[in-house]
Design goal:
The protein contains three helices and three strands; from the N terminus they run αααβββ. With about 120 residues, the protein is mainly alpha-helical. Strands 2-1-3 form a three-stranded antiparallel sheet, with no helix packed on it. A hairpin with a 2-residue loop joins β1 and β2.
């Protein structure tokens, strides 16, 4: 998180704003007027708040992307060693019995053993 925060200050426009704030601080210090310190403090405050906002947005975007990846990761409901379990489709091995229901994606090449079950 901290690294992401400091990465926000690598943008050219942010660097220009920080340089402007430093120059404004130097001028305010040279003039000795307390009211002159308002502008550089305001510039730095805006730059820092912008960096915090960007870090939070990046974190939310990464979480959303991870959630989408988890949704799209294919899983398979299998009967292995007499027990039904849900595993990653990449972990399927020959001999696994894949259990499919209406709407399921077929996670791998398979031999069909049972076609349909009639309900009464």
């Amino acid at each position: 998180m901290l690294q992401r925060f400091f990465d926000q200050f690598k943008d050219a426009m942010i660097i220009i704003l920080i340089i402007a704030a430093v120059i404004s601080f130097a001028i305010a210090f040279a003039e000795g007027e307390p009211s002159e310190f308002v502008e550089p403090v305001l510039i730095l405050l805006i730059v820092i708040l912008n960096a915090v906002r960007d870090v939070l947005q990046e974190s939310k975007a990464e979480k959303a992307l991870d959630a989408l990846k988890n949704l799209s990761a294919p899983h398979a409901r299998v009967i292995r060693e007499g027990k039904e379990q849900i595993i990653d489709a990449s972990k399927l091995v020959p001999g696994d019995i894949i259990r499919l229901e209406a709407g399921d994606f077929v996670p791998a090449d398979a031999r069909l053993i049972f076609f349909c079950q009639l309900e009464k």
